[in-house]
């Protein structure tokens, strides 16, 4: 294994929202910073840097991850889907519309993470009752306290049936 010198970068290839990218990154760079700083994808937010809030949630090869806990080099040859890509998908549009109709946001900072989480849950086909929805959503935080409206938005999608 080649030793990487300080300041040396590694070239990675990844696909983000159906667009291929080749980027030189420092081995310690987090995926959230690659997305926001290098690719200009600002939907996923930096909220806590501790994987607590979920504002940075993305799908990595179809699995929900908090991008503040993933090194960019771990996304080598991976498929990344952010809120921007989800919003282009029919299911994503349905979720976004439900959030709008149910006023499931106040400041909107947490919304990309909640929409991404909801999209993942619906893609996985996980039927949920209200308790199950609450359990699923508990991994994301809303500083404004819009939880009841977020819960309503998800329930109105038929996830809680």
Label the overall shape: elongated
Order of helices and strands: EEHEEEHHHHH
Which strand order do you get reading across the main beta sheet?
2-1-5-3-4
| Total beta strand runs | 5
Terminal Cα span: 51 Å
Which spans of ≥5 residues are poorly predicted at pLDDT below 50? Answer: none
Q: Mind telling me the C-alpha Rg?
A: 16 Å
In DSSP terms (H or I, runs of 4 or more residues), the helix count works out at 6
Under the CATH scheme, the architecture of the largest domain is Roll
Helix amount: 25-40%
Which whole number gives the mean pLDDT?
Answer: 91
Task: Characterize the main sheet.
Answer: 5 strands, mixed
Could you give me the name of the CATH homologous superfamily of the largest domain?
Answer: Beta-grasp domain
Protein structure class = alpha+beta
Summed up, the domain count is: 2
CATH fold topology of the largest domain:
Ubiquitin-like (UB roll)
CATH class category label of the largest domain: Alpha Beta
